[in-house]
Amino acid sequence: MDPEQLRLAAQVFADLPDVRKNRGLNHSLVTLIVIALCAVMSGADTFPEIQAFGETKWAWLKSFLSFRRIPDHDTFRRVFAQMNPVHFQSSALDWIRQAIGGRLDTGDILSIDGKRLRGTSESEVQGIHMVNVWSAKQGLCLTATAVEGKGNEITTLPSVLDTLSLLEVQGCIVTIDAMGTQRDVARRLVELKAEYLLGLKKNQPTLFRDVREMFDDALRRPIEHTALDLVETTDRGHGRVEQRRCWVLPAAPDLDDHAWPGLRSVVMVRSLRTITTTGVSSLEDRYFLSSLAVDAQTAIHGIRTHWEVENKLHWVLDVAFDEDGSRTRKDYGAENLAILRRWGLNLMRNEGTTGGIAKNRKRVGWDDQYRSRLLHCLLDPST
């Protein structure tokens, strides 16, 4: 890869504000971030490992970055603790806009879900939670916002949706679990001309009861005498068989009194899971609110696709990037490292080399040409 192209790619971070005092600075912010990004993609999970990567790949880095020596791990730790994560995330969002061609595709499933950074606290509830937005069609993490404690995920959802507005989500289907089933969230999605599919549990007790009674009443009668739309699916694998029946009803007029913004339909999914080795079965009913028209096929697709945020993002961050093992806690350090890991994962997915992310992280460390291609994706995500 041409060093001049890599030099231009590195300038993606040139506009990030540097909060350090100018006097006595030995390394530019661009140099620090690019070394850290390349190190994280190459398998580094800690600041000492980032330093070790830089020292090992000194000649390659020197071909397009300006520095006299590789920063030590305390310098990386201090800079990432001080850097404003809002500005760092903004740079990531600018790159995302280029990668998706300015707007998201109509019908794309955008899954919003929180993930705790376990190393930031000994408590199961407290510590930093990253509220992530996953695009199923693009296969990218669109944005990640940190909150203190799981309960605060609710309060940060409006700002997450404001960020999504910069990506033109008109026609996309936004899925959120029951914690995010709030009128303000639905109202904001309607304003953005996005569709929604929101989990419904007993945190909305009156609405939950009324929706359940609607389905109880409809399921007692022959389906041809109801407004029910039904689709059935069966999956086999991992030692179990799962049969799902998804019913959808129009929300009006039964739920008009709730004045829920944009509500057009309600969804019920009944899942029967059977362990093949023991024959033991379990039955579960789940309910959802939706702005979509009555269409069971679209509803079940959105509900099942929502879990890609767990399988293709959260699981990969834990297994391939050891995110849960990170013990960084000081100031903004944990949040900025989380954003850096998502940057790296997005670049690897955008570049398109097949194979598992854990394996490809090793490939990045071994192969200078592969690492150069990933870094070049900063300059032109379309290549």
- Please tell me what the overall shape is: elongated
User: Which parts are unreliable, with pLDDT below 50 for 5 consecutive residues or more?
Assistant: none
Q: Provide the structure class.
A: alpha+beta
Separate helix tally: 14
Q: Whole-number average pLDDT? A: 90
Strand order of the largest sheet: 3-2-1-4-5-9-8-7-6
Question: How much of the residues is beta strand, in percent?
Answer: 15-25%
Sheet bearing the most strands, described?
9 strands, mixed
What is the strand tally?
9
The run of helices and strands is HHHHHHEEEHEHEHEEEEHHHHH
Structural commentary:
The chain is an alpha+beta fold and 383 residues long. Among the domains are: 3-88 and 329-379, no CATH class; 200-294, S-adenosyl-L-methionine-dependent methyltransferases, CATH 2.20.130. It is 42% helix and 20% strand. The chain is built from 14 helices and 9 strands. It has a 9-stranded mixed sheet with strand order 3-2-1-4-5-9-8-7-6, sandwiched between helices. A hairpin with a 2-residue loop joins strand 6 (229-237) and strand 7 (240-250). Helix 2 (29-41) crosses helix 13. The longest helix has 19 residues, at 333-351. The radius of gyration is 23 Å and the shape is elongated.
Give a nutshell description of this structure.
The protein is α+β, with helices and mostly antiparallel strands. The protein has 14 helices and 9 strands.
